[in-house]
Amino acid sequence: MHRRSLQHLARVAELLDARRAAGKVRRCHGDLHLRNICLFNGNPVLFDCIEFSDELAVIDVLYDIAFLLMDLAHRGLQDLANQAFNRYLDLTTEDDGLAALPLFMSLRAAVRAHVTATAAKAVGPGDFDKRICEGRSYLDFARRVLEPQPVRLIAIGGMSGAGKSTLAQALAPAMGMLPGARVLRSDVIRKRCRGVMPEHRLPADAYTSQVSERVYTALRDRARVALEAGYSVIIDAVSLREDERTAFAGVAANANVPFCGIWLDAPAATMGSRLAARRNDASDAGPEVLRQQLEVGPGRVDWTRVDVGDDFDSSLAAVREALASARHGTNPRKPA
User: Fold this and answer.
1) Which of 237, 92, 79 lies closest to 154, judged by CA?
2) Are 28 and 57 within 8 A, CB to CB?
3) pTM assigned to the model
4) Which listed site, 116, 172, 260, 299, has its alpha carbon 20 to 30 Å from 319?
5) What local confidence, expressed as pLDDT, does residue 116 receive?
6) Pick the residue with more confidence: 327 or 55?
7) What pLDDT is attached to residue 125?
8) Distance between CA atoms of residues 297 and 276, nearest Å
């Protein structure tokens, strides 16, 4: 465990130095695990930060969030860990530090293993075995998070309202290294390029072809960074144009990782009803946008086409089957 940590540290040493020089090392909470977060008036509130030691609290900002991600994943809350991971990266410019995140999470788990084992000395016989077992589980996590996992790029395309984002969020937690795949959503990147929160509605001039080209360039650039860091990536974008789809496959080829493109086909009525029901979402698409997309059409689609409808579980199963078939080089079963 110690040797593996040192090996990983050697690989990211220059990155850590560069992040310090860029101002990414500063005073943080320092102890950001779930026992130090509560809900107050419906909002998460952080408390009991480290105030007594600059040595412990002045850290890389990713080392701070790594404690939360580790704690969520260790407790079996993988879905929440992946959501927190992606939301944090969506709202920050920390993608460049992804290569260091496994080491950061491993260190956080190792610290918890040490603290838990030390605390076991002060408890009664009935709790001793429980504490030791918990400490070992943290140590196992610390080892596991440093183990490389298969990396792949998945692009999920389809008309607005086809269910791309919901399916991407369901797939991501179990893909690749902890805490799962980096999900890159075109709607979110478009908002961040304008400097607004993902749920903020944008005017029509944010959807010109020139802006969209910049958004798709950003999708490819961020995917490249995550793949190089060893993380699998899911791109969630309409990808109506053939050249957009081809460019995503090119990113995977340049990174020497497998690529799978999934095109979702859904009934127009289903997509329209979903768009009408959306609230507080990153997508600004409405029925008129969908109508325009349907009129233009995607042209020739060489991605795997999957029929999806109102039943989420069936849709997710069909997409997973398509991904498994692509991985093993077989033809997916045609949906009934």
Assistant:
1) 237
2) yes
3) 0.91
4) 299
5) 82
6) 55
7) 67
8) 21
18-27, 221-230, 326-335 — which is least confidently predicted? Answer: 326-335
Name the nearest CA neighbour of 64 among 43, 96, 36. 36
**Residue 157: half-sphere exposure toward Cβ, Cα within 13 Å:** 26
Sign of CA dihedral 201, 166, 76, 260: negative
CB 182 within 8 A of CB 232: yes
Nearest-angstrom CA–CA distance, 137 and 329: 36
Q: What does the pLDDT look like over 203-242, one tens digit per residue?
A: 988 899 899 999 999 999 999 999 999 999 999 999 999 9
3 state SS of 40: strand
Q: Does domain 153-328 have CATH number 3.40.309.10?
A: no
Instruction: Report pLDDT digits (tens) over 236-256.
Output: 999 999 999 999 999 999 999
- The better pLDDT of the pair 92, 93 is held by 92
Helix intervals (H) in the chain? 2-21, 54-57, 61-74, 78-91, 101-119, 125-144, 164-171, 186-193, 209-228, 242-255, 268-277, 287-296, 312-328
Cα first-last separation, the chain: 49
Q: Is the pLDDT of residue 328 over 60?
A: no
Other C-beta atoms lying within 10 Å of the C-beta of residue 331: 9
Which residues pair with residue 304 across a beta bridge? 262
Q: Within its chain, how far is the Cα of 172 from the centroid? A: 7
Structure tokens that stand for 5 in this block: 């940590």
* Rounded distance between C-alpha atoms, residue 197 and residue 70, angstroms: 26
Cis ω before 125 (30° cut-off from 0): no
Q: Determine the 3-state secondary structure of 24 from DSSP.
A: coil
CB 254 within 8 A of CB 224: yes
Residues of the chain with CATH 3.40.50.300: 153-328
Could you give the CA distance from residue 110 to residue 231 in angstroms, rounded to a whole number?
A: 22
Alpha-carbon span 185 to 114, nearest angstrom: 38
d(CA 218, CA 215): 5
Q: How far apart are CA 286 and CA 274, in angstroms?
A: 9
Predicted confidence (pLDDT) per residue in 122-157, tens digit: 766 667 777 778 889 999 999 999 998 999 999 999
